[in-house]
Write a structure and sequence with these properties.
Number of strands of chain A: 8
Structural class of chain A: alpha/beta
Oligomer: homodimer
Shape of chain A: elongated
Distance between the termini of chain A: 42 Å
Largest sheet of chain A: 8 strands, mixed
Number of domains of chain A: 2
Strand order of the largest sheet of chain A: 3-2-1-4-5-6-7-8
Order of helices and strands of chain A: EHEHEHEHEHEEHEHHHHHH
Largest interface: A-B, 86 and 86 residues
Strand content of chain A: 5-15%
Helix content of chain A: 40-55%
């Protein structure tokens, strides 16, 4: 099956699902959408993100390819339910930010269903259908993670979908993915949150001066802290061990910096290396 | 003396000094500039950031108001030298990011000179005269810190300069300023550098995958790590104790997050509070 002949169902019409719908406009046979928030589903139709809104069960019964775009732990609840409603030969994928638990749920699906894990490496600090943007995926890397239910058809069709929205496929194993994003993504969120907390404390000690003096640099460093809490809670809790390890290594780096404040030449070398690595 | 009648000398024609010169165009009688890099001084004249380039000694002998815009520790070296060359009644200020050491150097200047510490809360991750921008200070907060040599004239003229470039004056004591910026600014830089270091480590463990998966969110969180190392080294080393304290409190916040990964409801509350505080 080619993408242009496929009926694609998107479960969850927030930022990620809505943007996917917009990006697939004209590239698939039909875009179905379901969301527990009926008002969001209505706006998704009105905004052109999907062709038709319906219940999750109706969507599962009609779609050739279903993309799950809901928080990770909600996916884990819905995967077995949706699987019962899917047609023989249907393909299931997701856009969740952690992959071990989701791929384990895909592994045990009935053999009549194909499934491959997915994670597009992009996002915004805004959420909801009203923030959807058809260019969100352009230029992003989209990790595909094989499962026990991944066959050539699933790999090919989902790969075609990724390319159709302007993203680039990277194949990775679930374990490698989760370890890598614990630092490349989840740690950056935790750090932003801890910076916000630190500023709040400093604000108390300085009678409001610290908050008053926080400028654009601070705002940029903490922008991720504005992300959707439900989404992030699910990410952190389904990648707990890697996140904890990553926080530990980050704290060790910070302790190194504190120690280097007494060793100017070494501090200079580390800062120069960081500047170059970040360029 | 009013600003429009003043000859203003800017020592250091990098991002901050060059931007100041551009912002003062048409608002002062004459803009003099000095930089140890003669090519930078020539470009500052060509780009309209100053009216005339000269040596620091020549500038000090002619200016009514001298603004130091060089790294903090270089200021500490130059302040006593420049002071000898200043005319009676001349006013000295600076744009350095830490204030205790600079204000202590201002305190002991000859009584024939007025001096007030300054710190505009803005910047970029680019440096040098070619990055100068006449709108850099618009809307920024500019801290003014009194010293033993601050009189009404210095306070009024420097305050007028701050407003002339579009910034807002905040008065603060040196100690309060340094404590506040240790978190509001310096910690954000250290955190960005430590995130870059963590990604490098994760990259090693994941065979390059972590770096490959770092997306726009990570780039935003680490943007500060691209700042000028000479400038930052001077900032960190002249605010060492507050920065160290701030790193310690930040590490404690991170340890709290790691612990809360086992306490979902508390983690949710903390993340929601951080999201709101950052809005």
């Amino acid at each position: 099956m080619l993408l242009r002949d496929a009926t694609v169902g998107i479960v969850g019409l927030g930022l990620m699902g809505g943007s996917l719908g917009l990006a697939l406009d004209g590239k698939v046979a039909r875009r179905l959408g379901a969301d527990v928030d009926e008002a969001a589903a209505t706006r998704a139709v009105a905004g052109g993100a999907i062709d038709e809104a319906m219940t999750e069960a109706q969507l599962a019964a009609r779609a050739d390819l279903v993309v799950l775009a809901i928080p990770v732990r909600r996916m884990l609840e819905r995967i077995p339910v949706i699987a019962e409603q899917l047609r023989d030969g249907a393909i299931l994928t997701d856009v969740g930010s952690t992959k071990s638990d989701i791929c384990a749920a895909f592994d045990v699906l009935p053999e009549r269903i194909s499934a491959i894990g997915g994670h597009p490496m992009c996002g915004r600090e805004v959420s909801g259908i009203d923030a959807a943007d058809g260019t969100l995926y352009v230029g992003a890397r989209w990790v595909l993670v094989p499962t026990q239910r991944t066959d050539h058809l699933a790999d090919a069709l989902v790969g075609e979908l990724v390319q159709a929205v302007g993203a680039d496929v990277i194949e990775a194993r679930r374990e490698d993915h989760d370890r890598a994003v614990a630092t490349a993504s989840h740690l950056a969120y935790v750090s932003a949150q801890a910076l916000v907390g630190s500023l709040g404390n400093a604000d108390g000690v300085t009678d409001g001066l610290a908050g008053h003096l926080a400028a654009t640099g601070f705002a940029g460093a903490t922008r991720l802290a504005g992300g959707n809490v439900d989404v992030w809670l699910d990410i952190l809790l389904t990648n707990r061990e890697h996140v904890r390890e990553s926080i530990g290594l980050f704290s060790a780096q910070l302790a190194d910096f504190a120690a280097l404040l007494d060793d100017e030449e070494s501090l200079r070398r580390v800062l120069e290396a960081g500047r170059v690595a970040n360029a």
